[in-house]
Every structure is written in C-alpha cells, then in structure tokens.
TrEMBL record, chain A:
Keywords: Cell cycle, Cell division, Septation. It comes from the Bacteria. Belongs to the MinC family. Residues 105-205 form the Septum formation inhibitor MinC C-terminal domain. Interacts with MinD and FtsZ. HAMAP family: MinC. It comes from Sediminibacillus halophilus. This is Probable septum site-determining protein MinC.
UniProtKB/TrEMBL annotation, chain B:
Keywords: ATP-binding, Cell cycle, Cell division, Nucleotide-binding, Septation. It comes from Sediminibacillus halophilus. ATPase required for the correct placement of the division site. Cell division inhibitors MinC and MinD act in concert to form an inhibitor capable of blocking formation of the polar Z ring septums. Rapidly oscillates between the poles of the cell to destabilize FtsZ filaments that have formed before they mature into polar Z rings. ATP binds at residues 11-18. GO terms for cellular component: cytoplasmic side of plasma membrane; cytosol. Gene3D superfamilies: P-loop containing nucleotide triphosphate hydrolases (3.40.50.300). One of its GO terms (molecular function) is ATP binding. It holds the Pfam family CbiA. One of its GO terms (biological process) is division septum assembly. Residues 5-219 form the CobQ/CobB/MinD/ParA nucleotide binding domain. This is Septum site-determining protein MinD.
Amino acid sequence: MAGSKQLITIKGTRDGLTLYIDDSCSFNEMLTELEVTLSTNHVAEDEPMITVTIQLGNRYLHENQEEQLRELIRSKNKLVVQSIESNVIPKKQALEWLEDSEVKVINKVVRSGQVIEVQGDVLLIGDVNPGGKIMASGNIFVMGNLRGVAHAGVPNNREAVIAAAYMKPTQLRIADYISRSPDYETEGVYMECGIIDHEKEKIIIDRLQILARKRPDINGFERRMIHG
Amino acid sequence: MGEAIVITSGKGGVGKTTTTANIGTALALMEKKVCLIDTDIGLRNLDVVMGLENRIIYDIVDVIQKRCKLKQALIKDKRFDCLYLLPAAQTSDKSDLTPEGMEAIVAELKQEYDYILIDCPAGIEQGYKNAVAGADKAIVVTTPEKSSVRDADRIIGLLEKEENVEPPHLIVNRIRNHMVKNGDMLDVDEIVQILSVELLGIVADDDEVIKASNHGEPVAFHPNTKASLAYRNIARRILGETVPLLSLEEEKGMFAKMKKFLGMRS
C-alpha cells in the first residue's frame, strides 16, 4: 500500500506551492502521507512564508475535514494555506448555485399587500404597484412600472441592481441600503436603474447605460458565481 | 341559471351599497330578475338605500340559522316586481355568516334569478370572505383617491386568488370633473393603468345620488341625471351589449368635450 503509488505531488510555481492530492485514497491515508511528505521538506528559518494551494481533484471534504487539513499544514513551518480547490461540490450547493445564477421570469402585477421573493435574479413582466414588494437575492429587472418597493441583493449583495422600464418607487433597497422617494410629488423616470454608488455610499438612480460600465458582471452569471 | 356578482372595494365609503342598489335597479329596469344580497351584517344599509327598511321581517342570518325559508326572507321591491332584496341582520355580527352558508344561498337564488348582486362589507376579513364565496364575477368600486385606489389594488389581488371568480371589473365612482382637470384628482386612465383591470364604467359625483339615497329611491330610477345614465350604461355592459364600449367612449368623449369647453373658457 504505502509507497506503491505516490499520493501527493508537490509542484512549485511562482505563486507558491501546489499540492496535488490523489483522490482515490482515504482521507486518513491522505493525512498520514501529507504528514510524512511535509515533514521531510525542511525549510530554512529565514525563508519567507510559502503559500500553498491544495488541489483535491474529485474529492469532497466536509467542513471539519477541511479544517483538519488546514490545521495539519499550518502546523508545518512557513506554510500558509491559500486555498483548497476541488472539482466537486455537493448537490445541495450546486442547486443553490443554479438558483442564484438563474433569472426567474414572473408574469404578473404585484399588487398592494403582495410580496414576491426569489433566489437569484428576477425579471418581472408587469408592474409593482404601491404597497407591493419584490425581493431578490440578485438583481431585479422590471419590465413595467415600478411604483412599490424593490429590494435587490437580499441580504448583503451590494453589487445588485434594480432596473425598471418606468421607475417611481416608494422605496429602493439594495442589500442594507435604503432610499425612499422624495416628499414632494415627482414624475417617474423611464428606463433607469438604481445601484449603490460606492463613493457616495448611497443608492443612486441613473440611466440604464451606466450599468455597462459600473456593473459589467451582469453579463455573465457564471462568471459572477466563480468570483463568489 | 343566473350570475352572482359581488360588489366590493376594500375601503369603506366609496359607494359599494349605492352602486349595488343602482345597478340592481338599472338591471330591473331592463326586465331582468335581480336579487340583491346585503352581507354587511351588523351595519346594514342596502335596505335603507332601497327604501325597504320597513318591510324587513326575516334576514340572511335567519336563513342561515334555519329560522325561516329563503323565500320568506326575500323582500320584493316597491317599484319592480322583478327586484328582490335579501337584507342583512342588524343584531348579529359577521361570524354568524359562513362562506358555505353563502354559497348555498347564492346557489339557490341562481336557480330563480338572472342576476344576484352581493353587497360586500368594507375590509378584507370574514365579511369579505363571506361575500366573495359563491360569486362568479366581481366588480371593484373605487374613487379617484389614492387611498381608495390602493385598497382596490389590494382587493383585486385577493380576488385574483379566488378560483371561482372571474377577473374583476372596475367602476370609478364620484369623479369630480373640475378636480381632475386641475390635477387634484387622479384621472380614470391613471387609475386603470395602475389597477390593470377592465373598466366597467365611470360615475360622476352627483348630488342627486345622495338626495335619491336619502329618499330610499336609487338614482338610477330617475332618468335625466348624469349618475343615472352612468348606472344604466353599466347595467347594459353587464348584459353584454355590444354598445357598451362605444357608450363608454361616448361618455368619456362627452367629458373630454366638456373639459375642453370649460378649459377654453377659464
């Protein structure tokens, strides 16, 4: 068993070390092997810290296993775990990903007293009337009149945007920011969007065209997912 | 087999009872067999507006609790032979009525009458649920005020969830031309755009309505007033006449012309 095949391959790159761990052995075997391998590599005291990336291949680690692994590597001199990467994720997480990256299409009028809540982005074909509310963990696009409350990026995605064909909301909320309509009567605006202006630290409403510059990530949902 | 139409609004005081009485009268004028049901238990008004208060012996709660037969509780109108009223009880409260009981009553009435108009109490609680049970269609009454439109929106949302009720129709009541013109009141187009339901009719604010109600005679019974004409037109639209949309346009056209005329003068 031991020594018949190398379970751990170490490669050095400019960014540090990458540990490729064979994904067919057991977790305990892996730990033992890692212990031995890392102990044999002595690093001089005055060397800078070395960052380590771990490639698990098709192995899935539970949270406590991952912690064990980090613990082991941290106990070695001069090694810092930068990231642990795996090709696999549990089904549940995958479904969450899918949900978060999907655009849900809803075709109705959100009337007073009604609340629509979705995971991911929402495309509403219809109006949000005063007293109605639409919430999404991602972006909100309203192809209609937004007169009620829209809350995008629930609970903490400050990059989320709210766009509407006609915008005259009672309130716009993005993540933990809230802005309300002015106290005087106003005309609504057409084809505009609300985003958080990170410099002014508040929600601003502007033309849809600014999104291309300020939120280029809306283009690809997959890319956004990978960026986390 | 008749048709049951619930008349509702969410908000109180927008003219549900007046609308019920007048549409009922207008339909009776066109020789339809009509039965009005007042479901506002504890705060009945429809009998007063119809001028039938003194004829009440049994009421809807008596029917539900089987103290009398349905036919015994029905009151024939003093002007029409084809118009009847099932009055609400004044002494009990809304919990004495159940949706099942209402459904049974409406089903029985549908055998005999062409139209059953159900006057709904204000609010969205038990009273509303009772009134909507058994209805096939719904008419939402609103006035050109923000609060009233907001409540109408809420009630339309609730009606959309009722499987047996067709998408509701809208009546905009108590429109004051000069205020709409000044921009102090919502205009009809704006209301219809927000509520996105089909418009059944508009009724101008008319002192005659109050006068007639106080005399226990629905205004639709008197010709020659603006409101009366409006209610009669609504009744014709309910009957599915092909004129209705045209007459609505006419009505609006007339308003528009008047607005223009007044606008030019002032």
